[in-house]
Amino acid sequence: MQAKAILRHTPTSPRKMRLVAGLVRGKQVDQAKAILHNSTKSASRNVMVTLKSAVANWSQLNPDERASDNELFVKAIFVDEGSSLKRLLPAPMGRAYRIRKRSNHLTIVVDKVENKVTK
């Protein structure tokens, strides 16, 4: 059974977060943690926190099963655009430039690797 974790209103742009999300999509959880730990992107910290939360949610939903990090994998990870704060920056000759401070919503779904037995 799969489990998910959602991190909402993260104050980074969705484009920057999608770069990090693409690194761990489809990977096993232990590989994903190693990639995020060694990444220099600041968004990798938020992805790491959400990934740990998704693994904890999986163990809460499946109390009878035990699974290590190499038995779980990132089934889906996606970044949606959140609300934008609109600000104005004064410009020459009485004008103003618009600044949009973007945010995003991160969703991670983890599931257990199914071992298929071939006959």
Automatic annotation (TrEMBL):
Record-level GO BP terms: translation
Gene Ontology MF, one: rRNA binding
GO cellular component assignments: cytosolic large ribosomal subunit
Cross-referenced SUPFAM superfamilies: Ribosomal protein L22
InterPro entries: Ribosomal_uL22, Ribosomal_uL22_bac/chlpt-type, Ribosomal_uL22_bac/org-type, Ribosomal_uL22_sf
This protein's UniProt keywords: Ribonucleoprotein, Ribosomal protein, RNA-binding, rRNA-binding
Family: Belongs to the universal ribosomal protein uL22 family.
Subunit structure: Part of the 50S ribosomal subunit.
Function noted in UniProt: This protein binds specifically to 23S rRNA; its binding is stimulated by other ribosomal proteins, e.g., L4, L17, and L20. It is important during the early stages of 50S assembly. It makes multiple contacts with different domains of the 23S rRNA in the assembled 50S subunit and ribosome.
Record protein name field: Large ribosomal subunit protein uL22
